[in-house]
Model the fold of this input.
Amino acid sequence: MGETRVDLLPLLEDLRDGYPGALEETILTEIVANALDSSSNRGSSISASTSR
Done:
């Protein structure tokens, strides 16, 4: 994955404050929206279960 010049902490805080749901759902929504905006025609994801 490439590098970014974006300060990610303020970005995540803005996303957290701007959406009503869980931060994880917001991040996933933003990733999909950005992929659609860039006319992506394929995507993949990996999910790992965690015990709480």
